[in-house]
Amino acid sequence: MPDLTGFHPDSYRDCEVYQSKIKKRAIMFRNHIKIAFRSLKNQPFFTLINTFGLAIGMAGSLLIGLYIYDELSYDKMFADAGRIYRIDMDIKFGGAEIKSAETAPPMAAALQRDFAEVENTVRFRILGSNLFRSSDKSANIKELSTTYVDATFFDMFGLELIDGNKETALKEANTLVMTRTAAENHFGSINVVGKSLLLNNEDTYVVTGVMEDLPKNSFLKDYSIFMAMAGNVASRENIWGSNNYFTFVKVLPATRMDHFQLQLDGLLEKYILPWAQKTFPGMTAASFAASGNYIRYHTIPLTNIHLHSDNQIEMGEKGTIQNVYILSFIGFFLIFLACVNFMNLSTAHSLKRAKEVGIRKTLGSNRIQLIVQFLTESSLISFASMILAVIVAFIALPFFNDLAGRTISIPFTEPLFYVAILLFTMVLGLFSGSYPAFVISRFIPVETLKGNGFKNGSKWNIRSMLVVFQFGIAVFLIVGTLVIFQQLQFIQNKDLGYSKEQVLVISDSYAAGQQVNAFKHEVLSLSAVKSATLSSFMPIASARSNSSFFREDAMDQKFAIQMQTWDVDHDYMKTFGMELIAGRGFNNQSVADSTATIINESTLTTLGLSAQEALGKRITEDVELGKPVFYRIIGVIKDFHYESLREDIGALGLFLNKSTGSMAVKLQTDDFASAISSIENIWNEQAPGQPFNYRFMDDAFDTSYNEERRLGNIFIVFTSLSIFIACLGLFGLAAFNAQKRTKEIGVRKVLGASVSQITFGLTTDFLKLVAIATAIALPLGWFVMNIWLQDFSYRIQISWEILAFAAFLVILIAILTVSYQSIKAAIANPVKSLKTE
Amino acid sequence: MITIIDLEKYYATEEVRTIALNKLSFKVREGEFVAIMGPSGCGKSTLLNILGLLDDPDGGSFIFNDIEVAGFNERKRAELRKHNIGFVFQSFNLIDELTVFENVELPLIYTGVKAAERKERVDAVLEKMGIMHRRKHFPQQLSGGQQQRVAVARAVVNNPKLILADEPTGNLDSSNGNEVMDLLTELNEAGTTIIMVTHSEHDAKYSHRIIRMLDGQKVTENILADYKSSVAP
Ligand SMILES: Nc1ncnc2c1ncn2[C@@H]1O[C@H](COP(=O)(O)OP(=O)(O)OP(=O)(O)O)[C@@H](O)[C@H]1O
Ligand SMILES: [Mg+2]
């Protein structure tokens, strides 16, 4: 009869042997853990420093890890995100190259029509902040981020409506879809389909849909109201020269993007040239290229936009991959520092245990067992640290979010999180335990029993190298922090060419309608007000577009000037304290001034004229309608920084036109509060029911450097953490060193060494290492931070003072850390220390 | 050279108060070789620490070279010590991380001797002790007898007037021990005062006088050899 169970007597015995083997292993394992616990308990100082240091390092890197995970997750939640691209454009048309995420209105239609691979397209035309009033309310509420969008929006990004029909929503002009939060703000409910809203006191819009708030880690996160593109007349025009539409395409699966690119390159010939020839008859691809101009379209994957776009203007908040790299670097080194501490302290401590190891070895313990014993210890510490780290990270998270400007949470419900964290902990435990385990298990019994774990002589051991490494990182991070803050300081104090102090900007002054001039007039009559100006253009980084201009005597595309055109009133320059270097300012009495312009110095350079030569010359905008309007240059204004200091100052022309978007008020009082309340009173009289929003120019300026400031703050926190961890390690090491050298110190004292000589000796041993670290890290920090500074057109020089200060700081910290142990060791009574022998 | 009168030293631990030295008095003249003997725990090492200015007595008087030094603070004692006293210990107390040369050089560094002169003097002493060929070695690479010779070299390199030795042969076999005793005798004959604690009657015979102690007090004194002071008494 065949044996169906598959067992013979023999295999049964095998099994038994196997089981007893497992049992034996289990007992061994338990034994290892027991001994590990005991030995950790016997060395509370060492265990505490190790656990604490590792926990801090882990908590720091956990936070950074979550931050990076969040940065990398941008826009990945959209259905088909992998197939969505945006059409970007590099354009040079006279002047400087512009990198733009916005393209022309007919682009989307052309892609749909001509490209077989295109499944869908959608365009956004950003409207910025607008005032809305619901039919139930009397007051306006401001929405900061609104946009026109094509009706394909929902299909494109796989978005659903909570209320309304996504097939028909946004098809008709004057319809809009709003987010849940916006609906609640305006109506106090989300069942609002069919209700109407008044936009900027003028146009009525009907709500056709309500959607969930958009994900925090998406380019749409700030947007709350989407209005039907049908209401935007310009979106239907066949103009290839104005680029104001963010255009996304979804391609079919398995589309070859290199093919796609070739077709994009063909657009120039097919559409742009025929269109441009209306203005410049005879223009050809060759003549266009020969003049040094170009228009290059390319695609950027949706999921790359957040970190990889280098366009001046983006729809959402821009992150940079550089910051992700910098933070990964910091996170990695934080954890590495903590591991180094562990290795250092464990090996230092092993000297104390050398005798134990020697005895164990003589008694027959083999090397593997010893290694396992030490690894068990390090794993226990690693696990304890991880638990502590998660608690610390959890407590620190709100502060971190504040610092980083994010809304990250610890994914406690995500099983993958636990897997990752456990794996990480194990790797860390084994990694940090491996070096001490290896070193200790190598001890030769005879030597260790003699009481000396290590051979004499070699002072340049791995432990010294690790200390050098730790402090090198600390120095590097200090240099980084100092440079970032000095650059921010520099930006803040830079002479911008205009005065941003004491300037109050009242936004949405257009809401006062016809009364806006009366409002300005009344405000000017206040004694606290020196000057006031109405304009939609404020000298601060913001989304603005360029236009092409031509000199009257050189109406050739070769001489096109890309220039910003700002509509201002005659008080503009006075209010911002801008300086004329030639000519005169606007006169609001002069009719001729309505066709006059004041250009900045950068425009002079592109025109190739001196200030005096430019006066009286006329320029005209690139219009295809044949009958150009000429503007006479009546003045030249000193360059002022109106974009971020990352950019060079571009060409700019001021035009005397009614533009009532905001009103800037220059105050001449220190009592801001009462000045503001007087202005608010006037506003409420002139524009009843309209929100009064204001901010100070210098605050607005500061917020445009938020990303840098965040980076600076993150740097400060993690630099401090890494210094703290390094010092913890140094402190522990100094303690063990002093302990190990008790006898030596005693002998030296007997031979006549003074307390200060001993302290000095013990301290300089460590300082030498720190000094080496500094010498290596300073040039490195200088080099890397110079790369970072390249991003700014206007930047500081890294001075030797910064480097000296970093060196001074780290050495001071090291001295303070070490000297406690050194002094303690130096004042000990030699009679006692020699007695312990 | 040394006069102690009613010297007292107590050790107060948690429960017991030990009287380590109990009104101990004696004199040591310049150039003398004195051995101190007594059972374990009778206070010999305590006495030597006080004589070596490593520790301060709790009572009584200690006159060193006509100066009352009882009550001196740590800094003053250290100053006096490094110029006048050399130590030899039972456990050698060499610094493991330093070579033979560097170990012997240490006292000269602390008394501020210039590098060139240090080298000369250390070499001279090493030559005299017969360990010149070992000058680059580390203590762990030497035998016990060699280590103790290095310790003696280190004790005398500063030309101290007084050498204090606490069981210098305690860790050595008899032939190595005899060598060390011969060295000390030589030094004494050259004029150095020596006070040595020992358990060995054999070693004690090298001295001029044996002071026997019990429970922190002197019990007897045997004069072994005629001692003629180089200085008028
Ligand atoms: N630091 C101390 N704290 C408490 N008691 C001490 C201390 N040092 C010495 N004693 C006690 O003082 C007494 C004298 O000790 P000492 O070391 O002088 O003895 P000893 O004569 O040198 O002994 P041995 O021959 O064993 O070296 C002993 O009872 C000892 O226990
Ligand atoms: Mg003793």
TrEMBL record, chain B:
CDD domains: ABC_MJ0796_LolCDE_FtsE. Keywords: ATP-binding, Nucleotide-binding, Translocase, Transport. GO terms for molecular function: ATP binding; ATP hydrolysis activity; transmembrane transporter activity. Residues 2-232 form the ABC transporter domain. GO terms for cellular component: membrane protein complex. Belongs to the ABC transporter superfamily. Macrolide exporter (TC 3.A.1.122) family. This is ABC transporter ATP-binding protein. It comes from Subsaximicrobium wynnwilliamsii.
